Each structure stands twice: as C-alpha cells, then as structure tokens.
Amino acid sequence: MSSLGVTFDILTTHSSPSAGEVLQLGATSDDQPTRQNCLRAMAHRKDVKSLNWLINRFEKYHDDLLSALTTKSGKLDAGYLGTAVTKQLGKDGWSQAIGLRLIDMVDCLNQTASLARLIDLAQNHEDSLIRAASGEVTLSLASPLSKAVRHRGDGERINPELERFRQSIAELLGEAVERYNDHRNTDLLDAFLVISDWNDALFQRLMSDESPTQETLLRRMRTSEHQSVLQLLAGFIRRRKIPGPVIGLLLRRHDAKFCETLLETISDLPTPVTAINLREYGLPDCLRGGESFMRSLGSDRDGAMCNAYSIAMPHEPESIHLVIAMLERGGPSAIRTAELCLKRIEAPELADWIDVLEDSLEQQTAADAANDDSATAGRKSGFDRPLQLLDDLIALSDHESKPLAAAAQSLLTHLNTAEVLPIFGELSPEVGKQLGRILMQTDSGTLDMIRQGLRHAVMQNRLDAIAFAESLGLIDLMIDPLRKIAQTDHQLAKLRTAQALAHGTGSQSEAVLRDLCSIQDGSLRDAAIASMAERGLTV
Questions:
Q1: Same domain? 246 vs 216
Q2: Packing angle between helix 227-235 and helix 186-195, nearest 10 degrees?
Q3: Exposed, middle or buried, 113 (CB in 10 Å: 0-12/13-18/19+)?
Q4: Are residues 181 and 84 part of one domain?
C-alpha cells in the first residue's frame, strides 16, 4: 500500500474528531481523486459528525460520493453511511426536505434494509410528496429481489437468507395491495408484482378468482410498463397453470414493450410448456402482423416470431412466409430454427396449391386486361405472394442443409403425380401446365408415374396420363406406351394419342403418326393427318 493509502486508512479508522475534520476539509478539495478518497473514508468512519456531514451535503457531492463508493467489481459499498441513512429514515420528526433527501439516499445507496419503512411511508405519511417518493424507491429497491428466484440458472440454489427477506417484503407489499383503496399508491402494486414469483403462495392467493385484489393486480399488469412486471406477465406463457383472467390479458395486451418481453420469453428455443400454451391458447395479439411486423423488429427476434407462429398457427401459410423471411435475413441459428419450425407446419393440401395457381392466373389475366401499371405493381407486390411462397419452398427443398431441405420437401408432399393425375382432366389447360411443371421439380417419380398411367388398366387413367404428358411436353419420352395405345387401345384413347402426338418433336413420335396416317380407320387417320399438319409435316 502506498503512503497516501496508509494515510487515508488511518484517517478512516482513527477515532479522533480531528481525523474527521481533516477529511471534511479534503472533501472540498478541487482535486477530484483527493475529494473522492476523503468522501469514501468519511462514509466508512464510525463518526456521527462525518456521516451527518455527508447526509447534509449529499446533493452537492452526489456523483463523487457514489463514484468513490463503487468498488472495482462494480458493486456499491456504502459503509456506515448506508446504515446511518437507514436509521435516520426510521426516525420521526424530520422535515419534508430532509425526508426526501433521506429517501433519495436510501435509493442511491441501495439500502434494501429500509424497504419496510418505505412501504409504511408510502401508505401512511401525511405528506403526498413523501408518499410518492417512498413508493418510487420501494419499487426501485424491490426490483432486484425477484431476480434470485425468477432468473436463476438451472441447478442454481436460492440464497436462503435472501429468499426469507424477499418473502418478508412480499408479505408487507401484499398487505399494501389489500389496502390499495386506502392509499392508491400504484408503485406499491408494481413493487408487489415485481418482487413476486409465479410460485409464491401469496401471489397465487391474491391472484385467485376468490380474491378481491385480483382485478386490481390485473389492471396493473395490463398497464404497467415496468420491465419486471412485463416479465412476470410474459412469463406466464411458460407456466403449466395460468389463471383464467391472466390468459386473456396475456393474449390481448399488445403494446410494443410487452411484445418485446414476450418474444424474449418465448425465445429461439421455446420450452415444452410454452409450446403447449401457444398451441392451446393461440397467437397473442401483440405478435399479429406476420412477416411485415417481423421485419419491423430486430433480426434477433426472428427465431421467437417463427416459433410462435409455427406452434400457434401451423396451418397458416403466413407461418411459412416468416420462416422464409428469417432465412433471407440470416443469423447464426436461422437454419436450425427454420428446420424446427417447418417440421411443425402442416403441409398444404393439393387443393390449396391448385387454388393458389388458379388465383394467380385470374389476377394476372385481370391485370393484363386492364393494361394498368398500378394493377401490375399490385400483382407483383401482393397477388403473387402465395405463388412466390411455392417457388421459395421448391428452392428451399434443394437447400445445402439436408434436414432443412427435407423439412421443406415435407410441406410439398401433396404436390405429387399420384394425387394430381386423377384430377388432372378437371383442371384448366393453363393451371394444368403450371402444375405439371411444378411436379417435375417436386416429384422425382413423375416420369415413372406417367408411364404407369399410360399402362393402367382403367382407360380414364390412361387418358389422364396422355393429357399430362401432352401438357408437360413429355410426348417424346413416352413413345413406347403411346405407340401401344395407338395400336391396341380403345378408339377414344387412340384418338387422344394421335392428337397428343402433335406436340412431339422427335423422329419416333413422327413415325407413330405416319403409321396412323396409313390405317383404314377414317377418324383416327384424320386425327393423325391433322397432327402432322400441326407439326408442319407432310403425309
């Protein structure tokens, strides 16, 4: 220790009144280090005069004193000054000015030992400013006390002494809650909510349906912007048992601060209980707005948003839109989160995809007919959104991440040739073509399925397969089964084959047509000749 350090150590511990006087003189120095060293020494002296000197000049030396009392680790060591302030506040007879100063010091010096006194003052003091200040500082000092139980890590034990103190203060605040109509100090309501844990028997009692305080506390949870109150409300999403009125509040509170807190609570890795609650109660109102709302938030909230939607709304396309948007924005856990979310989402039915294609074609036709730039702009920005989703999923099904690609592919499961072929003939030619091209991307077994359809025992299945192959431009790849149909099948199937061969381009399909042009059957021969002409070939 330096000689200067030894000097201050002596001045701190020496009982002589002159030591305190020296420190008082040094505390008025223009040299900041000297001033702060003196202030710290005075705060640690068992000297009433030194402590009173600091109390009376707290406003003047506020910043220097707090800086002097803050340790290298960032903690506040108030010394005997904290105890002195607590004792002074506990006495009666001080003036409004002194009382307000003491309350301020209790807050600045983090004197939780004063909480019982503050709670009493906040309810009962005759001076409204004292009541208000006491309530504010009660709330300020109560806030850290909940962290020990609400935010402890897995396996982390609760400090028994600290927990007993928290419970004792909670009891006092609970009594203040029950007396709210007498004092009307909302800070005490907030303080009770801040200091409480979901598992507290007192909290559960005051929040029960039978309690006259339930509505009072609900009202504060509905309007309070205190972060710990928001955390308490949002944290119910992770509780197995949620009081009925709280469920309604959890779902309907929609301010931005609560939204942020709720997303933080849901997180990128929702707990099983969180998932159960979101699935049962649905999406909270504050999270509605879909992709556009998510993009207004920071990308660090993407994972929580996607989880909330995929759990609460697994049947909605918007849930997929959010996942796609999250992947576009990127992030360290985007791929893993996207995979988990897509696995939860229900695969759209074939009819849903057909509706998308039909709607897109209708809107495009309307826009083209209007020949209106604004209509085209609208179509590009909004009308084609479902179709874009389909394209995005198809692209995602080829992602380098195999689990993610598999999850995307599972959402396209109903876009398969086996489901399409039986209803293909009912579709418009335009929709049929689009759907067929999509199947070529989503179903690796499309070609084999068409071949099987062309060989099917039921003629309607063969006719559907012919139309499918024609629509996709696959005639030249199906020559063998088409040749067999043209030679041996029923007349209707033969005629459809002759017509479909008009869309072939290769020599083999041409050869089949020429054979049909030389047969006796007039209608089939005429159809073959017409197809030849359509291809620009002469008989």
A1: no
A2: 50
A3: middle
A4: no
